[in-house]
């Protein structure tokens, strides 16, 4: 393959070469010893060694110290069709790492006095359900609202991962809900709905899309021209890494056709991340009040403080305080972690599913900060929130017992909150199968009397036995609790 025949590859290669020179040579009087230390760079390369092959997708890595990108490089390939390598300028989708940008917009509006964090969501989204105990904007920010996760809702409604649905359909699904997972402020439960709604609030207050607000207020002032909320999946993005998932004998493309942003959707590069990392520390945009608000943790009704702040989570890694977040969506994985006490930050953007970027940057941090860390223990906290991934991760081990007295369960059950009918049919290996929308039939398994589970990790709690048949059921699915169904004919 001739590199000169591909302008994109040439640009990537040039950026990679420039970054390598930056990473491996002194940059003036403030250059750090680690910048040019071959031993350190070799250790870092070993951490990412499994993802460095040119025949597979991998990651781009950035190491920041005191506001300078002291090491930036790429591993593996951004585009397997054309053999384009990953590098510091490669553009990646970063999943839930995007949440801090949505929270940043909300914080900026709050600091300016254009938004009240403690106002009910319904003040800004009039059609939002009128709950007796209404969640506030602040509840959405800290994942303490109880609002059910839309990604799980759309799956429960029978949509497959490859199906298309619109922003309005998502908003309608959220607004159809008549119950929260819990009373606002009583608990912490990660919810992509919360950040989707925050993006909608930004748009309604500012009169521009979340993408345009972020561009005008953050990305242009900070010099991040390629970074954006990707709200049109058909848009061409020069230098973009394609997302991939492993198969038995290689990889397949794994991207999305969905246009939701707020909970995710940021496209950025390691090179441009540097400006954002600086802003999290110095508040070039937003000022000191904005920086403080971004790092303010949520507080439950009990008075307990949670690690989650404004799209970033406080943590600890071998005695050092961290602030970080991870993200996962289709074939992309991303992670960022800042070590405020040392002035270091680490970011890894990847285009292969089944990579754990938070673990990779934790290992990288241990190379750079070994002399400042406590001795390792069996499990180290990396500073990522428990539910950093966007995709539903509520699967669980299920019993495999056959279901007795199957006629009690069989039939059709309707949920007005999903606008979906579940059909429970007799037959299959364990005696009952579930049919929901476009999803493949799923076997149901007995957990206890009146309680079934599915191979997808759902729990079905049946009630109101009449005429030998259950008349109602409730579904629990991780980030969605107590979803009600009623028996119907047909």
Q: Largest sheet, described in full?
A: 8 strands, antiparallel, barrel
How much of the polypeptide forms β-strand, as a percent range? 15-25%
Structural class per helix/strand content?
Answer: alpha+beta
Total count of strands: 21
CATH architecture of the domain at 95-146 and 181-372: 3-Layer(aba) Sandwich
Q: What global shape is seen?
A: globular
What kind of oligomer do you see? single chain
> On the 0-100 scale, what is the average pLDDT?
89
| CATH topology (fold) name of the domain at 95-146 and 181-372 | Beta-lactamase
Describe this structure in words.
The structure is a single chain. 26% of the residues lie in helices and 23% in strands. The protein has 490 residues and is of the alpha+beta class. Strands 14-15-16-17-18-19-20-21 form an eight-stranded antiparallel beta barrel. Strands 2-1-13-12-11-10 form a six-stranded antiparallel β-sheet, sandwiched between helices. The protein has a three-stranded antiparallel β-sheet with strand order 5-9-6. A hairpin with a 2-residue loop joins strand 10 and strand 11. The chain is globular and about 75 Å long. The termini are far apart.
